[in-house]
Amino acid sequence: MNYQTPRGTYDILPEEIAAWHDAEEKIRRITELYRYREIRTPYFEDTKVFKRENDSSDMVNKEMYTFAMGQESYTLRPEGTAGVIRAFDQHKLYGAMELPARFWYLGAMFRHERPQKGRQRQFTQFGIENIGAKSPELDAETIALGYDIVKAMDISSVKVLINTLGDDESRAAYREALKQHFAPYLSELCGDCQRRYEQNPLRILDCKVDHDKDCMKTAPKLSEYLNEESRAYFDQVLRCLDELGIPYEIDERLVRGLDYYTHTVFEVVSTRPDSGAQATVFAGGRYDHFVSYYGGPDLSGIGFAIGMERLIALAKEEGHAFKEEPACAAYVIGLGQVGSTVLKTVQDLRRAGIVAEGNMVPRSLKAQFKSADRSGAKFTVIIGEDEVRNGTCNVKLPDRSQVSVSLRELPAYIKEQGGNNE
RNA sequence: GCGGCUAUGGUGAAGUUGGUCAACACACUGGAUUGUGGCUCCAGCACUCGUGGGUUCGAGUCCCACUAGUCGCCCCA
Question: Which positions 362-391 on chain A have a beta carbon less than 7 angstroms from any atom of strand B?
Answer without folding.
Answer: 363-367, 369-370, 372-374, 380, 382, 384-387
